[in-house]
Amino acid sequence: MSTLITNIKFLYQVYDEPPKRLAGTSMSELPYLQDAFLFMKDGLIADFGLMSDLNKFDADHIINAQGKSVLPAWCDSHTHLVFAQSRVQEFVDRINGLSYQDIAAKGGGILNSAQALRTMPEDLLFESAKNRVKKLIEIGTSAIEIKTGYGLDLDSEMKMLRVIKRLKDYFSIAIKATFLAAHAVPKEFLTTESYVSHIIDDMIPVVGSSGLADFIDVFCEKGYFNVNQMERILIAAACHGLQPKVHVNQFNSFGGVATAIKHNALSIDHLEIITEDDITAMKNSESMPVALPGCSFFLGIPYTSGRKLIDEGLPLALASDFNPGSSPSGNLNFVFSLACIKMRLSPEEALNALTINAAYAMGLEQSHGTITIGKKAHVIITQPIEQLSDLPYHFGQNMISNVLINGNLI
Ligand code: NIG
Ligand code: FE
Q1: Ligand nearest to the CA of 295
Q2: Same structural domain for residues 62 and 79?
Q3: Is the pTM of this model over 0.90?
Q4: Cα dist from 92 to 88, 119, 176, whole Å
Q5: Are residues 120 and 145 in the same domain?
Q6: In this predicted model, what pLDDT tens digit does every residue of 174-210 receive, in sequence order?
Q7: Closest to 290 (Cα-Cα) out of 311, 266, 248, 319
Q8: Domain span holding position 395
Q9: What would the pLDDT profile of 59-103 be if each residue is shown by its tens digit?
């Protein structure tokens, strides 16, 4: 199967030898071709170049993209999209003045989601998550990381991991599973310590040998898990080859960033609150800082200082944090707009943060995130646009004309 896209106004992010990620001033770089073609064969990018250099291709399908532009499809390195039901009542409670923390303190929040998920049959959980993933692919998402963390007991966490495995098998996009039992302390445990011991002694060995998880995560935050507890969980998970991708600094900064980096975190996510010590720790590390502006928008909390991180020479990725409590949307097109409008990223920086750097943040930089021969043929064809800035500028409007996954039109 082969598809040829012709007359592309701008073909963005073309690389013969792509970097594994971009940082600092290089995040503004966005190599492109004007008046280009893209040839895809057997699910991969097979060739690209200027229309003037287009030799005859024997393509099964030809798409004339006159006036439209093409870019690599989005990667979403941080979601919680397997969940049982919405938390719309908490949304209304927040409108009426309660904070995210107030709601959690009343037994709502993550524990509310856990209660609903534990009783939900696995098939129904799979069907609802499948529908969410389908809709995300239609709006340009081509790789998704999905966390557990609404089970909070071994059976329910394994149920979530099996659902994610079924999603991996069902969809032809890349899906990664992250084990997040340390998301909140379930009601049946009287102390955080006793739950941490249970995670380390009873859950991680089973999850590790199941092969169902790719990464380990901990919600390192006041009132949830402290730095020492996160560190012990990361050490136990490392014995099973699970690399950390962690929730740190959503509301407070108290050493989680440096500790996650010490344990080789692939990504450090949230970072709404950052100190100079955190920035020092991030410099010279291989960990990808990930900002989640949809969560800041929805909860009304500070946005991650992405501008500062990039100005300090650091890399940055963007993700949706799709979950029922703090970001009930997985729309990365809106995240693109928020990053430009609220975090003052340039459109070029934001695009890099949603593609090449986002792919890195989920271990997919070899196969995703740039237009490069041999990478997955996952691309977005835009509506007719004059320049890249048109995409984030028209916030909330559908600027996508088509999505191709493995070279096939969705
Ligand atoms: O990334 N902060 C922790 N976890 C999620 C929210 C989960 C929830 O509220 O259900 C987040 O924002
Ligand atoms: Fe999250």
Answers
A1: 1
A2: no
A3: yes
A4: 6, 24, 32
A5: yes
A6: 999 999 999 999 999 999 999 999 999 999 999 999 9
A7: 319
A8: 2-71+370-409
A9: 999 999 999 999 999 999 999 999 999 999 999 999 999 998 899
